[in-house]
Amino acid sequence: MANTLFDKIWDAHVVQKVEEGPTQLYIDRLYCHEVTSPQAFEGLRSRGLKCFRPERIYCMPDHNTPTHDQDKPIADPVSKMQVDTLAKNAADFGLAHFGMMDKRNGIIHVVGPERGLTLPGMTIVCGDSHTSTHGAMGAVAFGIGTSEVEMVMASQCILQARPKTMRITVDGKLGKGVTAKDVALYMMSKMTTSGATGYFVEYAGEAIRSLTMEGRLTLCNLSIEMGARGGMVAPDEVTFEYIKGREYAPKGEDWEKALAYWKTLKSDEDAVFDKEVRFDAADIRPMITYGTNPGMGMAITDFIPVTTEMSTVEKSSFEKSMHYMGFKPGESLLGKKIDYVFLGACTNGRIEDFRAFASIVRGRKKAGHVIAWLVPGSWMVDEQIRREGLDKVLQEAGFEIRQPGCSACLAMNDDKIPAGKYAVSTSNRNFEGRQGPGSRTLLASPLTAAAAAVTGVITDPRTLM
């Protein structure tokens, strides 16, 4: 029987099926950060349990970490307590912990792949919806709740209903200035934020294969914003080349054995998906969001939709969003003044994203009124930035690089966008208040963010390339 890539990995990890109930699934890797793990650890303590397979669990703070002065005590008492609690819990339960200032620290969804902890064929979970990122390596990866985190700690298994499968194929070659972020925002604009609800998505087609590993990680990161349970890309030479030699990757004979298995991880030619969706790469242009969910996006040269053909419910929601954003139906965003630019997050905090940003700002200067936060996704990314001399390019243009962390992706640390201010952001969500109470977020690629940073207004990045 023909199987999809998802079927192959899922079926290989089934421990048992509960009749008329969920599947007990074995988990290869559990990632823990400081926000969703404290109650899980307390649950283990209250039951007198240890972690069943501690070597499968890796912990690091990221959401609450400040992006400056990480060598000093955290000033915010709530953030400090959460970060300190994770360190204590990891020590008490004998778990690997990459704390602040550890060279292996960073955003958990950036560190996992770059350290070789995330590998093809794995099942991976974390108490964070953007765990879908790791599917780019050819893994089944998804976010879970805190009670499920405790379940995995105690048993290395989880009870899960099997999702349906969807394949999204993007045919053809991507155009000038079009990045993985634009592909994802385009998909969401067409499918809405609920278009993949209940499905595990496999991305396929020429345009997907042409993406770098970093691009694939960005794409899979945003799967959750379409409502998907997760997203994945079949591993290929791009994947294998990326993994080889990384710290936790297999070595020697183990590498050859792993590689032989990884090469089997692809959907069979005649595999049947529950749903098939196709897009043409030629239709995708640099994108930007104009509303208050990631599906409210458009090509940067287009106009905000008008309400003529909207239902009463759609119109009401749309108008509420426009009021919050301070925009009008039918208007262009080109030339709109912006206040902040954020480069970073588990969506776009990798080395490729900094290279893209630097390619636009090289030889130019940051607009005087713009506040820009450039935040590497990890210390490894920070090291690469400096090794490649990108830090000098950015500094000459008037930018400074902050220390790794989730930063302004969410208002859970010091990096908050003030009320009423516009931020062109490379993060993953633009809900009301996501980047700070009253903040107005426009999601875009690193190229579009860079173009806004140097012009001070929303700008088509292709005009600066």
Walk me through what this model shows.
The protein is α/β, with parallel strands linked by helices and 465 residues long. The protein has two domains: 1-283, Aconitase, domain 3; 287-464, Aconitase, domain 3, CATH 3.30.499. It has 16 helices and 18 strands. The chain has helices spanning 5-12, 38-47, 77-92, 108-114, 146-155, 180-191, 206-209, 213-221, 237-243, 252-262, 312-325, 345-348, 351-361, 379-387, 390-396, 446-455, and strands spanning 14-17, 23-26, 29-32, 57-59, 96-97, 123-126, 140-143, 157-160, 164-171, 199-204, 230-232, 275-280, 287-289, 297-299, 340-343, 371-374, 422-425, 440-443. The strands form five sheets. It has a five-stranded parallel beta sheet with strand order 5-4-3-6-7. Helix 6 packs parallel to helix 8 (213-221). The termini are far apart. The mean pLDDT is 97.
CATH topology of the largest domain, by name, is: Aconitase, domain 3
Task: Report the total helices.
Answer: 16
Strand order of the largest sheet: 5-4-3-6-7
Look at the structure and give the mean pLDDT.
97
Secondary-structure-derived class? alpha/beta
Helix content: 25-40%
Level-1 CATH class name of the largest domain = Alpha Beta
